[in-house]
Each structure stands twice: as C-alpha cells, then as structure tokens.
Amino acid sequence: MLPSSPIFASLVIIGWLLFTPSAWRRYVASIDPNLSPNFALAHLTKQHWQQPALWRLLLLGHGLTSLWVSLIVIGCLWLLDTPNEGILLATCYALPLSLVGGILGSLMVSVAFGIITGMIGGILLSLPIGIAGEILFSMAKNLAIAIMLIVNFSDSSVTTSENSLALLTVWLGIFTASLGGSIMYSTTKTAYNHPAYRQMGSIMIGVVVSSVVVFLIVGFTALAAHSVTVLIKNGILFTLAYDTLINGVFGLSIAFIWFLPTWHWQSALLLGFAASFLLGLFTLLKNQFFVFLPLQMPLYGFHGGIENAFLYLLLFAFPYVLAERIANPWAGIIAGIFGSGGVFIAFALLIQEDTLWLLLLLMLLAILLGLSFVWWRPLLFYPFQSAWNLLLYHAEEKRLDTQTSLLSWHTAFWDEHQHLPLFGLEAYLVMVTERNPLVGKLAIEYLSNSSQNWAAQEAQIELDARRLQSYHNVTTISQAHRHLAAGELSSPVSALLRSFSRISRDVEAGLAQESSYNQRLALDAIEERLDGLLRELTRSSEPYAQRFYPIAAQWRQTVADYVRALGEAVESRQEISNPYIIGIPLTEHQEIFVGRSDISARIERLLLDIRCPPLLLYGQRRTGKTSLLNNLGKLLPWQIIPLFVDLQGPASLAKDYAGFLYNISRAMLTSAKRHRELQLPPLSREQLNTDPVTRFDEWLDEIEQNLESQQTLLLTLDEFSALEHIFNKGFLDEASVLGMFRHLIQHRPRIKILLSGSHTIDEFERWASYLINVQTVHISYLQVKEALQLIEHPVKDFALRYAPNASQRVVTITHCHPALIQLLCAEIVTLKNKQDIIKRRFAQVTDVEAAIPDALQHGRFFFADIANNQVTKTGLSLLRFLAQQGEGATVSRADLLKYSQLAEPEGEIALTHLLQRELIEPVGKNKYCFQVELIRRWFI
C-alpha cells in the first residue's frame, strides 16, 4: 500500500509503474478486485468514485507529480545555464502540460498511461521550450493557419535552430506516446486473445478514420479561421475569435472521444464544455494581461501548455479509442501512436518540407525506442543498480544479526523488469538466510518466480551444500532429507541433491533396524552407493561436481566409521548379530531370503511358454509374496525382466488416469534398472496429461522395440486387490482399468503379467472375466529344509548354534511359516544376547519356549490382523474355542458346529472360510486342529 507521506507516496506510484507493476495491480485490486489494471476514468462507476484510495491515487499521481515535473524542469534548465525567463516559461508550460495531459490520458486511455505520459511528457516537451525561450508552436493554431494561408514556415522569420527545436519537440511527443503505451501494456499484463487480423484491422481503422476526422476538423478550422480573417480586421478581436474557435473544436473533440467508450452524451457534452471553458479562461487571461509584462510570460506558458496538452492527448486518444473498441488496448496503443505521429509529421513537413524520408525515419525511431522501453531500460539502469546492490551488500555485512535486513531494498525486489542477472544476489541471499532463515526462505520463494530465479536456485543449492557439509554423524545424515529444498527446483544439480536425499532416507531406514547386523547390512549397501556417487562426481564435468565431491566423501567416511564401530562393539561383547527382519518384505540385497525354489521354478516354466496366460500368486498375508517378487530378479533367468509395481503405493492414491499410469511407469522404470541394469525409455507426467491411456500404450510400444529378441517383460502387480480402493472412490473406472490389462494380456505376448494378493482364490473370481485363463501359483509355508536353513544358517557365519530338538521345536511351533520363524528366531537371538557368554551361542528347547511370550508380544499386529480383518465373528469364536483345547488338540466338526450354535449351512461356511485362510487344517476324518501352534497360543 501507499506510504502515509504524500511526497513519498507520489514517488512510490511512479516507481510502481516503472519498476514494480505487480504493486500497481495490487493497489488497483484494492479499489475493486474486478477493476482492470489498465482502467480509464471513463470505465468507472459511481461506486468507484466513492473510494478514497482512488482519489488519493489521482491526486498524488497527477497533482503532486506535476509539481515534481516542474521542479525537475527547473533543475535541468538551471544546469544547462538557461536564462531565468526561459526557466519561468518552461516551468509554467510544464505544470499544466503534465497536469492536464495526464488527466486527459487518464480519462480516455488509462490512468497508468495518463500518469506516465503526464510525467515524462511534461519533462521532455518542456525542456525545448525553456531552451528556445518561447512556445515553439501552438500546433492546432499554426497547422490551421498553415493550411489556410499555405504558409511555408521555412520562409518565415523562424530560425533554423528554432525549427530544429520544434522538430525535436515533435520527435519527443511521438516518443512519449510510444513509451507511455509500452509502460501501460507491461504494467497491466493483460492477456489479449483477439486474432492478429482483427488487431491489424483495428489499427488500420483507427489510423485511417482518425486521420480523416483530423483532416476534416483541421479543414473546418481553417475554413472558419479564413472566415474570421475576412470578417474581423481588428487584431485583438481576431485573436479572441480565433482562439474561441480552436477551444470549441477541442471541446467537441473531447466530447466525441468521451462518448465513444461511455455512450453517455450528457457527460460527454459536459466534459467538452468544461474543456472549452478552461481553454477559454486561459485564452482570455492571456489576452487581457498581454500588455502587463510581469504576467505575460507565466500566462503565455500556461496557455501553451494547456492547449498542447489537449492537442497531444486528443490526437492519440481518438485512434486509440477506435482501435481499442474493435480489438484491445494494445491495438489501440499502436493506432494512437501512428495516428498522432502522422499529424506530427504533417506539421513537421510544414516546417521543413524537403525532409520527408528523414522525418519518417525519425518517427519510426521514436516509436521503436518508446515501444521497446521495457527492453532497453534494464540495460540503461543496470550499472547504477549494480553499484546500489554492492553498497547494500557491504552495508548488510556490517549489520548485526538482530537488525532488520536490507535485502528488500535490493533491485531484485523492486525492479520486476530487470531481467539481466544481478550478480552477487545469490551470495546476498545465502548471507541473509544463514542469519535469518525465515527472511531468507521468503526471499528465495519470491525470487523463484521472478527473472532472478537463477539466484534463488544458486543460493538454495549453496545452502543445501553447506547444510549437507555440516552433518558429521549418521544421525544427522539420516535427517538431511527433511531439510533439502533445491532438489525440488529445476536445476542440473537437482538430480544430485535427490541422490543425497535418498541416501539420507536409506540411512534413516538402516538405523531403524532393530539389530546391529541389519543396521550394518543396510549401511554397507549405502557405503557402496556413496562409492558409486564419488566415481560419478569424479568423471562428471558438471560445475557442481567439485562442490559436492567433498560432501559425498565425508558422508562415505562417516558411514564407514559407524559400520566399523558397530562391528567392533559386537565383537567386543561377543554379541550374536541378529539378521532377522520383522514386518517388512525382504529385498534382493538381503542374504536372509531363502527357499522358494519350487515356486520360482514353476513361474519360470510358465513364463517361458509362449502361450502363457496371466499368473496369480496368492496366499495368506506375511507368507513372503512380496519378498519373493523382490527377489525374482535373481531367481529367474536374465531374459525375464521383472517390473515390480506395488499397487498399495502411489498408484492406488492417484486421482486420475494420468497419475495412475505415471506411477505405474515410474515403478517399472525403477525395477528394470534395479534388477537388470536396463534403462527403459522415460515417460513424463506431462506426456500423459492429454490422452493418458493412448500415450501409455505408445510407451509400451517403445519399450518392446528396445528389447532384445529373447527378452520378456514380467509386470508384477503386487497387492492387486488394492485397486478396489481406487475403484470405490470413483477416481478410475473398474471396467476401463481391468480392460486395459486384459488388452495387454491378449495383444502383447512379450509382456507377461503376474498378479499378487492376499485374497483367497475364490475372492479373485469376481475379476475372472478380465483375467483370461489365469494360472494360479499358491505360496504358503516354507519346506522343512528351507525352514531349517532360515533357523540355523540365515546368513553366512551365523554365530548361534541350535540343538537339533531346539530347531525342530521352532519348525513345529511355527509350522514353517516364514514370518513367524523370523519373529521367533529374532526373539531367541535377543534372549541369548542377554545370557552369559558361556551359554550365549548355543540354543536349546528351553530358549525356544522362553522366547515365545516376547514373540507373541512383538508380533501382536500380525496376530491382531488375523482376528480383526481375516475372520468373521463366528470364525473368531470357533478359533478361540479350538485354541483352548491345547497344543495339537483336535475337535470334530460336530462339536465345532454344536459350539457355534449355527445351522448346518452357516456353520459349514465358517469352517470353509477358516480352511481357506489356512488357519485350521483337517486331521483324519471330520476333525480339525490349529495349523500353526504359535497362532493358537495368541488366541488363548
């Protein structure tokens, strides 16, 4: 908003128009949010005129600015050693020219145009008056007389220097109109959607029609003036009559121009009468006091300034209003410039009739310079702004951290047209941000959307680099990803910063592992990645490589030191490393993954068959489906490329087809790179915005074209049933998505599909029409041999040994369930590490039994999921009844149905559901028991 000081506020308004157009737009919006930034006074309603903010803008923008113009003219002429008479004349000419011309511009063109042309025109057009010491021409009067009497000014008493000054004034008038139009257009930032032919047509109409009207007006004035000459011989009366005629023509012209945009003839006539009266008043005063020498010069200047203000603005406004009505303000600006420029050229030719081509060239130069003002102005101001910014920077260095920053005075924050790089800004932003993070963050966010966004990026990158360099232990490294920002910017270094962010996240995940062994395993992999990053930075020619190489080296050393310290601590305590991973799927990098050779062999056999239909991998939760999918890359031959997509991830959160397909493609790209070091063609989010399904299909074409002849893609969609969530929300259509997968199955033989889910096979039947001839692959418990390997030799050099009956007890109590083996064995290792070193490395049956309570406690979410989400109330009641019978106890179907107190069909359905969920199993004839002893103990 505007400052309270009127003097400062008037300068701020000029600054808005020249340097900070967004502030002008905000102020106009404060008057009325629906008011256009290029509004004219003709556009305003009664409600607008009741706004104090509007009156303040007009009073300061026209009234006080006109006083500034007069002071500037006085100062310039004084520096040029102009005589006092010339300074007085120019000052008296400048004040009304700026005030009246600005108001007329605001009335008929726009307030922004009126304020700028009033200020710049008042200065530029007044200086030649002061240098010449007289009004070089009263254009309306002299043009009419010249046409009427066919006067050749070159033969008159006007000197060559005065002719040159007059031509300079013409040139400056054209330049002022062009510059005002350029500033108005750049300030308002209005988007014009009219076609080019309409804009060009409107310009031609505006120029031609205005030229004809001006010609008629001048002809009428000349004819009337001739009549006055014939009828009136007295000099004073002739002058008064002639001035009255000119004033009337001006008044009618203003009334007509006002009538075009408003269609209010009453206000148009009133405005025309007011203009004629004002001109007539100063004409009368000038003639009345012409003989009174002290007032002669001021009145002469005032009259000339008012008259020429009317002429300049009327010549511009008439073609502007015509073209603006037909097309848009930009077309109006061009029409106004050429329309008024043509009249100025006609007058100039009357002064020097033999210089047509030179005048046309000068006119074109004036127009080009004015219209391109916003392009060359930054270059003109750049040296001064650079010096100013340097002084600010040095002043900021000397300020205390508690003092308010001077950053807001930097050119980048008040000159929105300065597109040249303001060197040193990035260092200034870094210094301010380190002193006051909030101020620096707001400044960087602001500059990110400006022409100085390069400085925001450079500063953010340097701040991120310094922050990364300050992390000296794995704990702080694990939190680094929460503070990085430059990875979100569009910059060549973004990929590098995202690498640091991912490493930080992986360190955090590694430290979250409960056992020292798993921490070391995860951090070893991170150390290898940092080694790879260092090699990339060594080979890179990017300018940021040298800056970030020491950071990567420091992180690698920090991680390596931590891993070594972990190993030393474990060795010193003779602690058994706990390799078991609870609650998350195993990846291909984790040695603990065992078995599943029979399932992977079946999948391989089916995939190598050219007629292979889609595969469905199903089984109970936590039986290792996702772990198997993660490890398919090393279980299957090289020609099969696993593309793992977790449908419980971002894909199921998508709200449209573009987001859904983009997240699937991103997972496919990552998986191909991870499992086979294969770089698939990229697919951006923007490419999917127009027609996502078609573009995704074309992308699959590109992938198939890049495959080798023997290669096959295996698209594995984990937790396929998660799509129900996105279907139920209505974001995607079930038939369309499943139909797309069906089309892929039928028409892309080199892309195989493997679905995975925790539903039973019966629950997948609702999608049977889409999954044509699906082949099922059931995953359940480990084989005994595989289970014993997981218990006794989960990793190489495992320090814990089991008594044969102890490991067999684990097999019995877990029924070879992979997740429960890891749960129980992890608790056994924890229990053994608490014992004396003599007993620590040998597990017996008593240790297995002692670890069961903690296993039930730490695995409570696994067991609670069974009770809450996988069985019905009747099934839950049956499980609790069966659990109370003891380990290995069997109960007949009749007793179970009797206990459930349900009719035969309902009871049979409950039993069948428990069998499908693999929670109970049949024993002999019509008897049932718990399948997994550890689960039975939970239900007790």
TrEMBL record:
The keyword GTP-binding does not apply. Keywords: Membrane, Transmembrane, Transmembrane helix. Residues 614-762 form the ORC1/DEAH AAA+ ATPase domain. One of its GO terms (molecular function) is ATP hydrolysis activity. InterPro entries: AAA_22, P-loop_NTPase. It comes from the Bacteria. The keyword Ribonucleoprotein does not apply. The chain crosses the membrane at residues 6-24, 57-80, 86-104, 135-153, 165-183, 203-224, 236-259, 265-285, 297-318, 330-350, 357-376. This is ATPase. It comes from Thioploca ingrica.
